[in-house]
Specification:
The structure is a homodimer of 199-residue chains.
Chain A (H helix, E strand, L loop, with lengths): L4 E6 L6 H15 L2 E6 L2 H7 L6 H4 L1 H17 L15 H13 L2 H13 L8 H10 L4 H8 L2 H16 L7 E4 L2 E4 L4 H8 L3
Parallel strand pairs in A: 1-2
Antiparallel strand pairs in A: 1-3, 3-4
Helix pairs in contact in A: 1-6, 1-10, 5-6, 5-8, 5-9, 6-7
């Protein structure tokens, strides 16, 4: 029998995607489930729902709570966390790079490093110099990575991945899919892995 | 030392308040923490946030997901569940009754029975006849209960409780407070109890 599979859908600006990205491999190892990392863009998905900004900015009382909740969660999981100076950041370039990196084997390390840049180091992840540093950090030659990320084919592939997410009922991040079954939120990661194992 | 206390804020229309209401006592017993049940109204709290309807109706893709998620959660916790024919229901009368009942010792049983009426039996919980049946079921004389619930004092008390919720940063239900610390959602119940115990 093939190894059970789970798709992990994430966006670099998404706050709860940060703990999910840092913890998903540990869950996968424990469960014996393969994780497919699928970067996407939340902007178009929010726009389809009539949102011009993150719901955490649109609903500011909820947004205030989210930052406190995220801080508590990160403390509980011993993940470093510093509230970014601006939110949401533009994750487009980082997502293009991550998608290109998935084919080359460095997409997952790069993704985790982008989350650290955003939610720990307070860097601007839409900035080419920051992204080049992050690439360097994970042992990838920035110039080649940028070239691969900005081909029309890769840009279209990210758009298609985002469209696919929306078509499959994804409305926020992080999300997890096990075939047609959708799980939304870092809070549902454990349940999603149990589902993948058939429990 | 006094027993640790947690306040449980709920609204009868709220979907995730159903599993929270059915499970909160078990958590309290296990944790050795006192629970104070605080019925409130989400309508005014949503209105303050610019929402004229439940976010699960405003954002329909998210709403579709919520029903599936709730079904899965209830199955996992072995709670019966049937999707109500209309959502959200008007929980005003039930909340007035629950608040009056808290003083008389039947508020918690009544609250659980209202949730069952809404999310298991498919009844209309704004209907006086349904509420009278629910009161009967928990051994309360309906006429007296209605009289107590509809005094100006009790109506004002429910309004004040809802205002207090909003002032304390509550934006949805269920919510849990431990002094000034807020936890939102059935998903945070365990964390809230751990917080109350000082862990």
């Amino acid at each position: 029998m093939d190894m059970a599979k789970i798709e992990f859908w994430y966006e670099f600006a998404s706050t709860y995607s940060y703990p999910a990205a840092m913890r998903v491999d540990e869950f996968a190892k424990k469960a014996g489930v393969e994780v497919i990392w699928r970067p996407m863009l939340l902007g178009p998905i929010f726009f389809e729902q009539g949102l011009q900004d993150s719901p955490f900015n649109v609903y500011e009382v909820k947004g205030r709570y989210m930052w406190r909740d995220l801080e508590r969660l990160c403390a509980a999981y011993k993940l470093p966390f510093n509230k970014p100076s601006h939110f949401p950041q533009n994750g487009l370039k980082a997502a293009r790079l991550a998608l290109a990196g998935m084919k080359e084997g460095w997409g997952e390390d790069f993704s985790r490093a982008v989350y650290r840049a955003n939610f720990v180091d307070g860097l601007t992840i839409s900035d080419d110099a920051v992204l080049a540093e992050v690439l360097d950090l994970v042992g990838v030659e920035p110039e080649e990575a940028f070239a691969a990320a900005f081909t029309q084919e890769n840009k279209d592939a990210l758009r298609a991945q985002t469209d696919e997410a929306w078509e499959r009922g994804i409305f926020g991040a992080p999300s997890f899919t096990v075939a047609d079954e959708l799980f939304w939120g870092h809070d549902r990661m454990e349940q999603a892995f149990n589902w993948a194992k058939g429990k």
